Give the backbone structure.
Amino acid sequence: MADFLLALAAYLIGTIPSAYLFGRFFKGIDIRQAGSGNVGAVNSFKQAGFLSGILTLCADIVKGAAAVYFCTRYGSLPVLPVLSVFLVILGHNYNIFLGFKGGKGLASLLGSLLILSPTTIPYVLSVMIIIALICRDTNTAAGLGILSLPIFLGFDKGGWVFFLAGMAISLLIMIKHLPDFRAYRQGRRKLV
């Protein structure tokens, strides 16, 4: 029962709408109706200003780290920490309290990996940077680079469970990047 409650808490932590709250507080805007409509740090930077953006970024990182920390510390199932990564990103990307609108999950993933698998971070970032240098688009690079997560997470944590969980997490993030892929292919996106 405790593991179920921790899993539910991971999702609910993900639903804390930092970009929405900071956008309302600093600019009086509904971030869902501004710019890209994305409820995340990049849109917050662009639409609500630097302070709102940096606070959103930090809050989203903390959300991911907190979810994994609590599930690691208090959970009994060995898969609960990696499941919490998926759940916190699911809550962030598809927020039940904001009509299932949300961010793209990268900052929450970063926070999650800081607790679950910090050695994975530089490898995944390296892949993203290489792709960004080739395609000249950071959003596309993030969406494609995340495909390396299952490999590095599987190697670091040693097992198919982590590889498969990494695939599920990658797909969850990639889905939110599909509009960026389409825009890039149509030549409407440049290096951000």
